[in-house]
């Protein structure tokens, strides 16, 4: 089986679930619209601008051929954030869901690394049948420690920076942090995870090949021995 083809397919499916690289970039548009609008407009018109941007983005993503769940997820996220703002009356609460989501990702990924069971390795193992002793192969284990740690560090940084901006009441700062630490860092982390997956799969295939060669070795030796006996007999 072609290792690169297998991992490329897995990677492509994961990226498609997030709406693709452009989907991640497009998802920042409602945030930018909100930050700009709140500089000039009252609360409700500001939310109308953000929701309108989200609706337009939803249509654009469907026209581009993105999957409906990812497009709806983006619009739903904007709607939930706007609903929270309406409830609290503060524009900065538009970012609360994202802030606490970052913490929710950081905690399990960090714990899994400390516990010696990095989550990306567990996921890779499940994808490949769930029967591999991947933690016993040091290069594979290190790759998943790096990948899972990257996820943890990025989300910890998102939480710390945006929570700081939230407490300071800087809506512009929250918007800038959300955009800068959103799509670029997500794509960077995805590349690290892809690298860990591909490294793990290549080592798995290499181990399987060595096992097959070892299993075939004795049979080949037996065949050579039988031939020599026949030649001596003749």
UniProtKB/TrEMBL annotation:
Pfam families in UniProt: DUF3159
UniProt keywords, alphabetically: Membrane, Transmembrane, Transmembrane helix
Top-level taxon: Bacteria
Coiled coil: none
TM segment ranges: 21-41, 47-63, 70-88, 94-115, 145-165, 171-197
Protein name as it appears in the record: DUF3159 domain-containing protein
């Amino acid at each position: 089986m072609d290792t690169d083809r297998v991992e490329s397919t897995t990677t492509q499916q994961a990226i498609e679930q997030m709406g693709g690289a452009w989907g991640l970039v497009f998802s920042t548009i409602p945030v930018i619209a909100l930050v700009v609008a709140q500089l000039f407009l009252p609360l409700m018109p500001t939310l109308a601008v953000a929701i309108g941007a989200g609706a337009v983005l939803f249509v654009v993503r469907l026209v581009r051929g993105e999957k409906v769940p990812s497009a709806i997820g983006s619009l739903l996220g904007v709607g939930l954030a706007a609903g929270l703002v309406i409830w609290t009356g503060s524009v900065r609460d538009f970012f609360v869901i994202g802030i606490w989501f970052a913490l929710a990702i950081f905690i399990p990924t960090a714990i899994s690394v400390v516990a010696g069971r990095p989550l990306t390795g567990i996921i890779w193992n499940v994808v490949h049948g769930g029967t591999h002793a991947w933690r016993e192969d040091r290069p594979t284990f290190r790759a998943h420690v790096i990948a899972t740690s990257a996820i943890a560090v990025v989300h910890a940084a998102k939480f710390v920076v945006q929570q700081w901006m939230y407490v300071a009441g800087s809506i512009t700062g929250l918007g800038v942090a959300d955009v800068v630490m959103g799509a670029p860092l997500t794509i960077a982390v995805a590349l690290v995870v892809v690298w860990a997956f591909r490294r793990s799969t290549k080592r798995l295939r290499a181990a399987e090949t060595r096992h097959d060669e070892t299993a075939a070795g004795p049979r080949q030796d037996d065949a050579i021995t039988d031939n020599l006996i026949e030649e001596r007999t003749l």
